[in-house]
UniProtKB/TrEMBL annotation:
Its cofactor is FAD. PANTHER family: GLUTAMATE SYNTHASE 1 [NADH], CHLOROPLASTIC-LIKE. FAD binds at S12, L41, V77, W355, G362, V363, I364. Belongs to the ferredoxin--NADP reductase type 1 family. Residues 3-162 form the FAD/NAD(P)-binding domain. One of its GO terms (molecular function) is ferredoxin-NADP+ reductase activity. Its EC number is 1.18.1.2. It is an enzyme of class 1 (oxidoreductase). Signal peptide: none annotated. This is ferredoxin--NADP(+) reductase. NADP(+) binds at R193, R194, E205, G362. It catalyses: 2 reduced [2Fe-2S]-[ferredoxin] + NADP(+) + H(+) = 2 oxidized [2Fe-2S]-[ferredoxin] + NADPH.
Length: 447
């Protein structure tokens, strides 16, 4: 038996486990996660109003319920939990699928003002991540600026613009629902430093903004026209051309006095967050101009956009895991086809997959092929790895070291508690938002 530990139960961890058991009848897999709940960003990132994508959890569930796969939640690998150096003593191979847990920084003055948050923090809050800050976020805000034009920026813009009737049927935690229901934010500006043809959002997600009730999307045609590809989109790849068509449609639509406005802005580079009465009051942008090579240059002209809430949605970032090599430039673990590289040489028995391997890009499905590459490498090494003696079952050893994992029955108990909470609130499933209630439910795991 080849015994493998997969660290992280997001898409890359689940696809790694799936690929392992599909390709090798003699492998058993423990999927460890620091959280008592599985599925990574599918549970704690994918927007609550995207039920169809959320339902991918059912596919990942089937993996974790496989007879040769075991979920061990509430197991932090690293400081405060199982040292990363201990895992290779318990398993023949370890695959790190730990994602990219933090956010990139802008590095501009005022970034840390009250009212300025990373999109990561906002997403964690409305997704009920137990480590999320509970600030209310929208309290006292009328206007918001979202910096960045990727799909996460679209998600947070949409969540700020949706009404209670649309949010209530989701699994959003009650605290976030109450705060968003009371929100006075009517204006959201989503701002890109480059042009519309370089925006990272996808057309389906962009188009959805135009379907929100009582919300109008505005785009300034003069700002679009700064992009040479706007007037002549023929040379653009199809996805960008489709984005331009959607934006053109909005730019040509007359205003219609809706209760909420989403303004899509381009060629504005954030340079400073300005304070007003002890919190953020506006974002100062420098107007940029295309440099002809896909980049932009500053023009020395500035514009302040009012905002009592600023969400910086400029990408996620991997964090180093103690005991593993880390490339700070890419915030990933150096690897060769998924094999961890230590000082340029392959480290036997150590692998990576997902965002910690390739950086924070790509949709859920991208992690499937990524995991497959890693598993191919691992199984090529298997005949050497199994020569090492390992315990038949690492769980007693972990327990002896004070680790008490939340097993599958514990997770199922959390699911039941979330269904019961939803019923008591007159909603569907409602997520438990804190460690205490999650662990309380997990330990009450009698079926
Ligand atoms: C806000 C947001 C919304 C998204 N929405 C979509 C969408 O709608 N559709 C789509 O296709 N893609 C979406 N994506 C992209 C998709 O979520 C990612 O491609 C995918 O989740 C990356 O998978 P991963 O397994 O590498 O990382 P994650 O999903 O982040 O999983 C990592 C797991 O590792 C665990 N972990 C971390 N450190 C440790 C440790 N030290 N010990 C133990 N466990 C640890 C974490 O708790 C987590 O469960 C979204 C991404 C974001 C950020
Ligand atoms: N529904 C979905 O399918 C869905 C939903 C959410 C997320 N995802 C996926 O998850 C991944 C991560 O998404 P993401 O939105 O976090 O990242 P992203 O797609 O990389 O977008 C990041 C945005 O931030 C901008 N940016 C970066 N640094 C900046 C700076 N210093 N100043 C101003 N702007 C800056 C980027 O602009 P530049 O291009 O100019 O650098 C870009 O517009 C993506 O692959 C995404 O598709 C998918």
């Amino acid at each position: 038996m080849l015994r493998v530990a997969v660290v992280g139960s997001g898409p890359s961890g689940c696809y790694t486990a799936q690929s392992l058991v599909q390709q090798d009848p003699d492998v058993v897999v423990d999927v460890l996660d620091r959280l008592p709940c599985p599925y990574g960003l599918v549970r704690y990132g994918v927007a609550p109003d995207h039920e169809k994508i959320k339902s991918l959890q059912n596919n990942l569930r089937a993996v974790l319920e496989h007879e040769r796969v075991r979920f061990l939640g509430g197991v932090q690998v690293g400081p405060g939990g199982v040292p990363a150096t201990r895992l290779p003593e318990l398993y023949h191979a370890v695959v790190y699928c730990v994602g990219a847990a933090t956010d990139r920084h802008l590095g501009i003055p005022g970034e840390e003002l009250p009212g300025s948050w990373s999109a990561t923090e906002f997403v964690s809050w409305y997704s009920a991540h137990p480590d999320a800050a509970d600030d209310g976020f929208v309290l006292g805000a009328r206007s918001a600026v979202v910096i960045g034009v990727g799909n996460v920026a679209v998600d947070v813009t949409r969540m700020l613009s949706r009404g209670t009737a649309e949010l209530s049927p989701t699994d959003m935690p009650q605290g976030a629902l109450t705060a968003l229901a009371a929100s006075r934010v009517t204006d959201v500006s989503m701002v890109g430093r480059r042009g519309p043809s370089q925006a990272r959002f996808t057309t389906k997600e962009l188009r959805e903004l135009g379907t929100l009730p009582d919300t109008e999307v505005t785009v300034d045609p003069a700002e679009l026209a700064l992009d040479p590809a706007y007037t002549d989109p023929t040379g653009l790849p199809a996805p960008q051309r489709r984005n331009i068509e959607v934006l053109r449609g909005w730019a040509e639509t007359p205003p219609r006095n809706a209760g909420h406005r989403i303004r899509l802005r381009f060629f504005l580079r954030p340079v400073e967050l300005l304070a007003d009465a002890g919190r953020v009051g506006a974002v100062r942008f420098e107007r940029t101009a295309p440099d002809g090579q896909g980049g932009v240059t500053g023009t020395g002209r500035y514009e302040d956009v009012e905002a009592q809430l600023v969400l910086r949605s400029v990408g996620y970032r991997g964090v180093p895991l103690e005991g593993l090599p880390f490339d700070p430039a890419t915030a990933t673990v150096p690897h060769l086809a998924g094999r961890v590289l230590r000082e340029g040489s392959v480290a036997p028995g150590e692998y990576v997959a997902g965002w910690i391997k390739r950086g924070p890009t790509g949709v859920i499905g991208t992690n499937r092929s990524d995991a497959k590459e890693t598993v191919t490498s691992l199984l090529e090494d298997a005949s050497v790895l199994v020569r090492e003696e390992r315990p038949d079952d690492p769980l007693p050893a972990l327990r002896a070291e004070g680790i008490e994992p939340v097993e599958w029955t514990g997770w199922c108990a959390i699911e039941r508690a979330e269904a019961e909470l939803g019923t008591s609130l007159g909603r569907g499933v409602v997520k438990l938002p804190d460690w205490e209630s999650l662990l309380g439910a997990a330990h009450n795991s009698a079926p």
